[in-house]
Amino acid sequence: MTVAALCALAASSAQCFAADPRYPDWPCTQAKVPEISLAAVWAGPPLDDASAKWKDDAKISALVTKLAARKTPLDEAEKSITDFLAASSDKSMAGKLLFAGLFDTLNAQRFQVMNGLERVTRKQREAADKIRADTIALQGLQGETTPDQQKLDELSNTLLWETRIFEDRRRVVKFVCEVPTAIDQRLFALGRIIQQEIE
């Protein structure tokens, strides 16, 4: 990568952050919604104290863990919900406890993902500053009458490595930015199945 390209990367990197001034470290094009609103994903009966009680039921807790895992296919999760509620003596209460557990668990997962994204953004900002400083230092070395070739090679290699890490992180961030939306969609879909089963 040329020095000009490195300069362009460093300059553009500062503009890659903070589409929303309220959340300066939020890197995604999707608007940051800090947590899922219960009303947006649940139109069933009031959860009442289900939010406080779902962890006390071992079967509910185990099922919540399975359903919340994104590796569990949605159709398998839906069948597990249907089978579980069909076998429950109090279907309405079981459904409310199950949804309360999913809501708590998926909201917590989402919060962790979003915090991770903002942490990476701060690292990216520091990396961009370092790339910019090293690029300027490299230009300075190249401008010397008799440049130190060893220093030039070392700094060039450092810059290439820093740039590669920066670009790799940027690609990962783009992918991870989709995760909060996927969690929202999963919670909405599972909530809808629970509501259908307990109505």
Largest sheet: none
Can you write the helix and strand succession as a string?
HHHHHHHH
Shape: elongated
Give the C-alpha Rg: 24 Å
Short description:
The protein has 199 residues and is mainly alpha-helical.
Protein described:
The protein has 199 residues and is an all-alpha fold. It has one domain (3-198). Helix content is 72%, strand content 0%. It has eight helices and no strands. It has helices spanning 3-13, 38-41, 50-53, 58-68, 74-86, 91-142, 149-176, 179-198. The radius of gyration is 24 Å and the shape is elongated. The termini are far apart. The model has no long low-confidence stretch (mean pLDDT 88).
Fill in the keyword field for this structure.
199 residues, mainly alpha, 72% helix, elongated
Topology:
Elements: H1 3-13, H2 38-41, H3 50-53, H4 58-68, H5 74-86, H6 91-142, H7 149-176, H8 179-198
